[in-house]
Design brief:
This protein is 61% helix and 6% strand. The protein has 454 residues and is an alpha/beta fold.
């Protein structure tokens, strides 16, 4: 199952999703410009639709404004991280009750307590890719003399070809890394560096048997590396006598041992928090898909029992308050029924405005013709359109709740601005699952026919 990248608060938007969002905004902007031009030139008969261009330009500016990203303010202290992880543990406890599951909290609480009690010696990990020559252990010990209680760890070489480029788990708890990088820079070294999180203390020991260039001659190398590494470069000619002076910044950092160790615990808690958030979202989405599958056919059944004009489908979908109430429980959103109805209605309006019902109807008819099926009978298409609208509204509401989980009061003004993008994303995902929806629809209609025959 795929989730929008922005749902996990600690991660940034993937480039592809940003580009997709931008394209949707451009399409909407073009629509605004075309509509404004037509209204003021053909309807109001203003020459050239000049004012239409101005109003359309205003619409273009509004649509092109960057959406306010979901923000997660990382705790600034060890105590703050522990408190934040405790809050997530409580969410697992609540989810155990909602999903009637056991064993969600206990193993994670043990992980948290282990990191809280972590009392290991100060450590420096020395790593390199296959083919790079590391300084001898005796050289490193001499160069780092003066740092008390230091655990020097020489790691196994990192492969130069890999499918995952994931750093080994046994390096995660080391306080500082010294990454030996042979010059000239190799692609494998750059790939490994790119996988290191920004909060990881790492120094790059530039190893070369040639005469090491002066600092101002390192500029070509800096151009190949992200900016975060520019102040972490330690040029070394390979001479034993030079290594101590080269590693002076590393010694100075390690001598602030308490600060370094606290930073390590905070980093480990941050990693734990990100993983737990991903686990929470996976569990919530699994529960949500079951809820949505049930709710969409409740709505379809209501439409079959009492057909309504297409413009009134929204009232039927939004009126299914049971689904949104259960969703609020799943995502720990303590909002009133009125607020939930406002959110569902806003997203439903955006879905209707984007033609979700019409497009789904056409697509379902196309699938029916291809299969030669006769299940699209009078009234059934409207019921299926209502079910499909429920899917899109439910999926976009799930995305909104994931962005605002635990928020006491959602920002409804921000919802109005984000609703078109949320719905467009949900509609695209559901369009990819249209064949599966059609199969569910066949089964639903066959069940109804069997009930009628009985």
């Amino acid at each position: 199952m795929q989730f929008p990248a922005q749902l996990i608060r600690s991660l940034s938007l993937a480039d592809g999703r940003v580009n997709s969002a931008l394209m949707r905004r451009v399409v909407l902007s073009v629509a605004v410009i075309g509509t404004g031009q037509w209204l003021l030139s053909d309807v109001v008969h203003l020459p050239g639709g000049g004012l239409g261009v101005l109003s359309a330009a205003a619409g273009l500016w509004w649509l092109s404004r960057p959406a306010k990203p979901p923000s997660f303010r990382e705790p600034a202290s060890l105590k703050g991280w522990i408190q934040r992880c405790e809050e997530v543990l409580n969410q697992f406890t609540e989810l155990e009750m909602v999903l009637d599951l056991k064993g969600l909290r206990t193993p994670r609480e043990l992980e948290l307590r282990r990191i809280e009690a972590l009392d290991l010696p100060l450590s420096l990990g020395v790593v390199a890719t296959v083919g790079a020559v590391l300084p001898a252990t005796s050289q490193l010990q001499k160069a780092l003399a003066g740092v008390h209680s230091l655990d020097l760890c020489i790691a196994n070489p990192l492969p130069v070809s890999s499918t995952s480029w994931n750093w080994p788990d046994d390096l995660q708890e080391l306080d500082v890394l010294l990454h030996v990088v042979p010059l000239p820079l190799r692609a494998a070294d750059l790939l490994w560096l790119n996988q290191l999180p920004a909060d990881r203390p790492v120094w790059l020991l530039l190893s070369s048997t040639a005469v090491m260039p002066a600092d101002n001659q390192l500029e070509p190398l800096r151009c190949q590396l992200p900016e975060r590494w520019h102040q972490q470069l330690l040029p070394w000619s390979g001479q034993t006598d030079d290594l101590r002076s080269v590693l002076k910044p590393v010694r100075e950092q390690l001598q602030r041992s308490e600060r370094v160790r606290q930073g390590t615990r905070q980093r480990l808690l941050g990693n734990l928090h990100r993983r737990w958030q991903a686990d929470l979202e996976t569990l919530r989405r699994e529960r949500f898909r079951l809820l949505l599958q049930r709710s969409q056919w409740i709505v379809a059944g209501a439409v079959v029992a009492s057909p309504v004009p297409s413009v009134d489908l929204l009232a039927v979908v939004v009126g299914n308050g049971l689904m949104v109430k259960e969703m609020a429980k799943i995502w720990n959103c303590p909002w009133t029924a009125d607020v939930l109805q406002v959110i569902a209605r806003q997203l439903g309006k955006a879905a209707l405005a984007q033609g979700v019902v019409e497009l789904s109807g056409q697509a379902l008819l196309g699938l029916a013709r291809l299969d030669g099926a006769s299940w699209v009978a009078a009234g059934a298409m409207q019921a299926l359109s209502a079910a499909y609208l429920t899917r899109v509204v439910g999926a976009s509401m799930a995305d909104w709740m994931a962005l605002n989980a635990g928020v006491i009061e959602p920002d409804l003004d921000e919802l109005k601005r984000q609703a078109p993008l949320l719905v467009a994303n949900a509609a695209e995902q559901e369009r990819l699952n249209l064949a599966g929806f059609a199969q569910q629809a066949r089964e639903w209609i066959e069940d109804r026919n069997r009930c009628k025959a009985a």
